[in-house]
TrEMBL record, chain A:
Domain of life of the organism encoding this protein: Bacteria
Stretches assigned to the Iron-binding zinc finger CDGSH type domain: 20-62
A Pfam family recorded for this sequence: zf-CDGSH
Keywords linked to the UniProt accession: 2Fe-2S, Iron, Iron-sulfur, Metal-binding
Gene3D superfamilies xrefs: CDGSH iron-sulfur domain, mitoNEET-type
Organism: Nocardioides cremeus
Xref: InterPro entries: FeS-contain_CDGSH-typ, MitoNEET_CISD
Source taxonomy: Bacteria, Bacillati, Actinomycetota, Actinomycetes, Propionibacteriales
The protein's name: CDGSH iron-sulfur domain-containing protein
């Protein structure tokens, strides 16, 4: 039997998955990542969903900076 | 003997143009025209001229690919005691300068002995600190024209042709757990076993697609002093065991400040219709560095602090060097591309 998949939840950040991963999105589309570690978006703000692109920082920061980042 | 190469069919770099008395004497020495052995090297021209910055960059490059037009490609120069002594002098000045700059910047500190989650939170907060510099990525996203984009890429190429390399100097000096975490990040940077996916190769493909010279160190003659200094700092931190925690702090801060700016660069390139391979390079970094920043802060830095308690201030120093050197580079690059733009506009009118 293979090792169980290891998943790490990052505070105010993505979910890290070790090993190859397939994510099926809401529309049934399958996204494959063959990176050693993949960051899956948890905040919903990524422009490259289902993968994280660091956009959670703008959401977490709040205030005018967050609004500015969110508007681009 | 066959022509030496840096890899992937690229020829070895040649020695750049001197920028003052010290770099001139060093270049003449490396070419075998004169020698610095048993001589006191000339005093460099003032900082900002690029003389001292280029001299140190040349000395570091002897440990990378050397130079095709140096004696024996520079291999005999690599461990010369007099050149190592010169490098040591220039490094002491560089470190002193940046210790002072970091102290003066008064950035947030990292707590000593904190729980891992608190350390990670503090590290991310440190990387959010306002350095007062304008963002190059934001400039590319909103304002830059094609030539300004090309010039930013030439300046950035000084680093990207040897992406990750300086941080790898630390590998043999790390505790085992930290070593494993650095290799996880580095595997991605070096293509996960697929040479074509090596980030330096993705960069070279992007440069060629933009019609820019993709050869190793092709743009050093035009590199701004601040860009050379930024590169020298990475070598300084990587090459000294004493500075290992600072090198790790630098690497982590570099990753933390990469994903979101990469997204801006992608937007700017799409606005300008830049060639797909160059856009792909930055798109890859949006995804890769969103992973790397978590691994670098939580695993790499986290494991090092667990193994080497009390290393937090030096990790913070390295992170601060990364943030402040990028701020200095951004200021210099933006001033440079905007000035060139005005000059070009003036010529058009004439």
């Amino acid at each position: 039997m293979s090792e169980p998949t290891q998943v790490t939840l990052c505070e105010d950040g993505p979910m890290l998955v070790r090993g190859e991963v397939v994510v099926e999105d809401e529309d049934g589309q399958r996204h494959v990542s063959s990176r050693p570690v993949t960051a899956v978006c948890r905040c919903g703000a990524s422009s490259l969903k289902p993968w994280c692109d660091g956009s959670h920082k703008a959401r977490a920061a709040g205030g005018p900076r967050a609004r500015r980042l969110g508007s681009v | 003997m066959s022509t030496p190469q840096t890899g992937n069919g690229q020829s070895m770099p040649t020695l750049p143009r001197a920028r003052g008395p010290l770099s001139a004497a060093l270049i003449a020495d490396l070419r075998g025209e004169t020698t610095l052995v048993d001589r006191t090297p000339p005093e460099p021209a003032p900082l900002g001229s690029g003389d001292e910055e280029l001299a140190l960059w040349l000395l570091y490059e002897l440990h990378h690919h050397g130079f095709d037009d140096a004696v024996d490609g520079g291999t005999e120069h690599e461990w010369r005691p007099d050149l190592l002594a010169l490098r040591g002098d220039l490094e002491r000045r560089l470190e002193q300068r940046w210790r002072e700059r970091v102290a003066a910047a008064d950035l947030p500190e990292l707590p000593v002995g904190a729980e891992p989650a608190d350390l990670a939170r503090a590290f991310f907060a440190l990387c959010e600190a306002d350095t007062g510099a304008e963002s190059v990525a934001r400039f590319l996203q909103r304002e830059a024209d094609e030539e300004q984009l090309a010039e930013v890429l030439r300046q950035r190429s000084i680093y990207h042709v040897k992406e990750q390399d300086a941080a790898m100097w630390t590998l043999p000096r790390l505790p085992d757990t930290t070593k494993a975490h650095l290799v996880t990040i580095a595997a991605d940077e070096y293509g996960n076993g697929r040479p074509d996916d090596l980030h330096a190769q993705l960069w070279a493909r992007g440069m060629r697609a933009c019609g820019l010279d993709a050869a190793y160190a092709a743009h050093v003659d035009g590199a701004l002093p601040a860009v050379l200094e930024q590169n020298n700092l990475m070598s300084l931190l990587g090459l000294h065991r004493r500075l290992v925690p600072a090198a790790l702090g630098h690497l982590a801060a570099f990753e933390v400040t990469s994903a979101v700016p990469s997204r801006r660069v992608v937007r700017g390139m799409e606005r300008l219709g830049a060639p797909e391979p160059m856009v792909a390079y930055y798109r890859e970094h949006m995804v890769a560095d969103a992973v790397h920043e978590q691994l670098a802060v939580r695993d790499l830095v986290g494991s090092y602090v667990a193994e080497v308690p009390g290393s937090e201030p030096e990790i913070a120093f390295g992170a601060a060097v990364c943030l402040l050197a990028e701020a200095a580079t951004a200021t210099a690059v933006l001033e440079h591309v905007r000035r060139d733009d005005e000059t070009a506009a003036g010529e058009d009118v004439a």
